[in-house]
Amino acid sequence: MASSNASAQISAREWADYSKRFISSEGRVIDDGNHNISHSEGQGYGLLLAYLAGNRADFERIWSFTEREFLLRDDNLSAWRWDPSAVPHITDLNNASDGDILIAYALARAGTAWNETRFIRKAQIIAKAIGRTSVLEHHGELLLLPGVTGFGAKDRPDGPVVNLSYWVFEAFPYFASLAPHTNWQRLAESGKRLIRKSQLGERALPPEWLSLANAPKTAQGFPATFGYNALRIPLYLMRALDDDKELLRRLRDGMTGSNGELIIVDTVNGKVIDSLNDAGYRIIPALASCVVDGAKIPAALQNFQPSLYYPSTLQLLALSHIREDRPECL
Questions:
Q1: Which of 3, 179, 212, 309 has the fewest Cβ atoms within 10 angstroms?
Q2: Which of 14, 41, 141, 208 is catalytic?
Q3: Among residues of the chain, what percentage have pLDDT more than 90?
Q4: What is the domain-level CATH number for residue 253?
């Protein structure tokens, strides 16, 4: 597990710029690239980044909103979608397991660092709920369902369906002590094996939504793309200090355009659907190049200037990780 000392991972200026842009006075994390909605994933990221910035007051503010507005289900998991223009604001009560993981993980790290038992207690409750409702055995692997409803073998003919970007690998060592009835190490190992196995198309990339009913393939009703969610896969592996150079090289090469930009790819024909040039996207293959080849992170990617919520979040996650665990990349 990474150090609990967050003093230098995100600067006060970086956090102030991020929070001013994306966090409301109530503690709602605003996805300004997605109609200004909020989601459990965003609340989890907000909590984690506030902790990494060492800003307890903002952590408390984000947590208060999250607990009041999202934790409405009767299974101790979070509803995933909150829309400011809708009444009621929760427009989809189903959970998203990556949001639940991020929330519990942030609570666990903050509770440990700040000796705050109420955070640790809540992290334990959520982690146990994730293990109880969203982790299952299938064909010898331990899987993480994207949500409690709609993805299992009983829910759809090509189920179970998973999203490999929902495996927040760095959280699982914390969950091992919080909720030991679930084998989190085995879940991590299964996720990594599935990433290695899922090499579709000429770029050898996993599709965002993966059917595991038989051989891994794109789930029915979903586009066959390595998309915006999947961009996080190598970042999560690296933040968990998984330095499988062969795997990281394959992911980096498949997801990177000729000028260092990230690309959204059709996993069937290799066609580039979109190119992403924001620093928050470009820092992911740059970090992979550091891990794989020893290349330094370009200075331009070390400068945080908030753009949209998602790439800004990814950039701070990457920068905080580099400062904490990979200073040789700077």
A1: 3
A2: 41
A3: 95
A4: 1.50.10.10
